[in-house]
């Protein structure tokens, strides 16, 4: 960036969450002065206060960003491998559906709080300054000044800025401040389902109570539970359930109803959660929605990244992975663009279609996870998918692999995924088992409808 690329000027980042702390590291390493303002207290001093799911699935996109930041070894030392989804049907047997071909195609469960702390440490080590207990509370874009408030002391301060980057999550204060100046056309689309978290403690012998190297799923049609492993040999269980209707959070007004529901629909899960009552009462019901914006930036003055720009439902486990990809993309544009406005415009042009693609895939995946993973048609299609992937490497690549193990644009994964899904439907039509599939015909369809995937 020239001649505006005056590194004595400061880049202000709002939010020291996952994206903010990573971006601060990348920009500080490029030589910029970076100041980060975070509304919460320093997690290293008070214990992590993150109210949300305590573990997250880390996949190739996120892992690659951590590699670039030099953090992958630190994080991977405490990650738990997840080889596939372990399906717990209401009736029938527990079974593992592998995510990839072998243990080179897996995802990882990481602790949100520890990951955030590692990123904050890295940002500071790179020279970024982080101010905690500092919530953005208004921006004067004409005079390039912004206001911060400490929610505990109520103290307010004002500062000048050159550029503001909003990494302040779905409830972004920077987005709120940009609204009057940018035709963002903000739309929050509520899923109509909420979630609640429960915990599976270690077994009495100190080990894991269920298979550690898997993401557990209890699909139940209109709703589901999932569980991700922690290094502490615990699991965080999340119940995803409609807000209204039957069953729903509305039909579970008290503990007795909730226990009844669990003992009927999630019998084995209930027996794994000894503190069910305390967890159910003590943990909130949280909402799920997708955030769509027409614009992510205000000329060269402000830009949004991560959930602040494109919050999504969590059913592909890609929100953080996508936010980390945003950080790499924005840092690269800042490094190579002549000015802030063009850096932000190019970042937005490159990332917005991809964010919208993963938002759509995440929504689709909810139906698939809760309703289809134990359905015979689905299993036959997955079986054929695996065979075609093996027969046509680089040509037929399962969508899950494109999203989770590769870094091809999400738009590519969505587009090719559509073609492949139709192909699987066509090739398995009227087939009851894999032996019924005409593989010669399926091979021909693959060559006809797909071009080699460019990595
Ligand atoms: P955040 O992590 O929300 O960080 C925003 C930061 O900004 C916070 O520290 C906040 O305190 C601060 N802040 C907010 N407002 C202000 C303000 N006004 N001033 C100053 N600071 C402010 N993603 C995955 O990749 N894998 C998963 O398995 C996964 N599972 C999920 C499960 C659930 C139930 C949910 C809800 C989400 C899940 N996600 C997952 C998504 C992931 O949590 C988010 O996409 C990710 O946290 C986004 O990072 P971010 O930095 O943009 O926002
Ligand atoms: C992953 C919260 C969350 C996180 C995830 C996933 C899911 C379902 C959920 C998607 C998936 C890892 N998924 N799992 N199995 N098939 N698709 O891959 O992160 Cl609910």
| CATH hierarchy class name of the largest domain | Alpha Beta
> What is the typical, i.e. mean, pLDDT?
95
Q: Indicate how many domains the architecture comprises.
A: 3
Kindly estimate the percentage of residues that lie in beta strands according to DSSP. Answer: 15-25%
Ions, cofactors, ligands: which are bound? Answer: flavin-adenine dinucleotide, ligand E1W
Structure classification: alpha/beta
User: So, the CATH homologous superfamily of the largest domain?
Assistant: FAD/NAD(P)-binding domain
The coarse overall form would be globular
Quick recap of the structure?
The protein is an alpha/beta fold. It contains 16 helices and 19 strands.
Give your account of this protein's structure:
- The structure is a single chain.
- The chain has three domains: 10-80 and 111-187 and 289-365, FAD/NAD(P)-binding domain, CATH 3.50.50; 191-288; 375-449, no CATH class.
- Helix content is 40%, strand content 22%.
- It has helices at 18-29, 43-46, 60-68, 72-76, 112-125, 173-178, 255-265, 267-272, 276-282, 307-310, 319-336, 340-372, 376-391, 399-404, 410-428, 439-449; strands at 10-14, 33-37, 55-58, 80-82, 84-87, 95-98, 107-111, 129-131, 135-140, 145-149, 156-160, 163-166, 187-200, 215-219, 224-229, 235-242, 286-292, 297-298, 302-304.
- A seven-stranded mixed β-sheet has the order 6-5-14-15-16-13-17, sandwiched between helices.
- A hairpin with a 6-residue loop joins strand 10 and strand 11 (156-160).
- It is globular.
- The model has no long low-confidence stretch (mean pLDDT 95).
- Residues 14-20, 37-40, 52-53, 56-57, 135-136, 167-169, 171, 173, 195, 238, 306-308, 314, 317-321, 323 line the site of flavin-adenine dinucleotide.
- The site of ligand E1W has 12 residues, from helix 12.
């Amino acid at each position: 960036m020239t001649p505006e690329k005056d590194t004595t000027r400061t880049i202000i980042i709002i939010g020291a969450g996952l994206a903010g702390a990573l971006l601060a590291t990348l920009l500080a390493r490029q030589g910029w002065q970076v100041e980060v303002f975070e509304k919460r207290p320093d997690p290293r001093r008070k214990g992590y206060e993150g109210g949300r799911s305590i573990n997250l699935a880390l996949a190739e996109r996120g892992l690659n960003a951590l590699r670039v930041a030099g953090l992958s070894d630190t994080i991977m030392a405490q990650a738990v491998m997840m080889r596939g989804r372990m399906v717990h049907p209401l009736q029938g047997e527990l079974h593992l559906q592998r995510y990839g071909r072998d243990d080179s195609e897996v995802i990882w469960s990481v602790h949100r709080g520890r990951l955030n702390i590692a990123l904050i440490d890295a940002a500071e080590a790179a020279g970024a300054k982080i101010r905690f207990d500092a919530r953005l509370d208004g921006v004067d874009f004409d005079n390039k000044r912004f206001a911060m408030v400490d929610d505990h002391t109520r103290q307010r301060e004002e500062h000048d800025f050159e550029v503001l980057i909003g990494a302040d999550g779905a409830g972004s204060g920077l987005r709120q401040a940009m609204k009057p100046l940018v035709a963002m056309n903000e739309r929050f689309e509520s899923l109509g389902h909420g979630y609640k978290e429960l915990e599976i403690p270690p077994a009495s012998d100190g080990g894991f109570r269920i298979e550690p190297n898997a993401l557990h799923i209890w699909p139940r049609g209109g709703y589901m539970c999932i569980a991700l492993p922690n290094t502490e040999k615990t699991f965080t269980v999340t119940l995803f359930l409609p807000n209204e209707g039957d069953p729903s959070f509305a039909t579970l007004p008290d503990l007795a109803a909730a226990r009844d529901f669990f003992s009927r629909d999630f019998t084995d899960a209930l027996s794994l959660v000894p503190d069910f009552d305390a967890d159910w009462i003590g943990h909130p019901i949280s909402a799920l929605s997708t955030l769509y914006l027409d614009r992510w930036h205000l000329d060269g003055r402000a830009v949004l990244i991560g959930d602040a720009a494109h919050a999504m439902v969590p059913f592909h486990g890609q929100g953080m992975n996508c936010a980390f990809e945003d950080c790499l993309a924005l840092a690269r544009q800042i490094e190579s663009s002549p000015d802030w406005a063009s850096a932000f415009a190019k970042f937005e042009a490159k990332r917005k279609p991809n964010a919208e693609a993963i938002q759509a895939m995440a929504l689709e995946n909810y139906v698939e996870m809760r309703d289809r993973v134990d359905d015979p048609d689905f299993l036959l299609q997955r079986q054929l998918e695996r065979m075609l992937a093996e027969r046509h490497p680089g040509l037929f690549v399962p969508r899950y692999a494109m999203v989770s193990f590769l870094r091809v644009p999400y738009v590519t994964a969505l587009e090719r995924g559509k073609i492949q899904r139709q192909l699987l439907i066509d090739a398995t039509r009227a087939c009851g088992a894999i032996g019924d599939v005409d593989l010669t015909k399926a091979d021909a369809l693959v060559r006809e409808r797909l071009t080699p995937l460019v990595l």
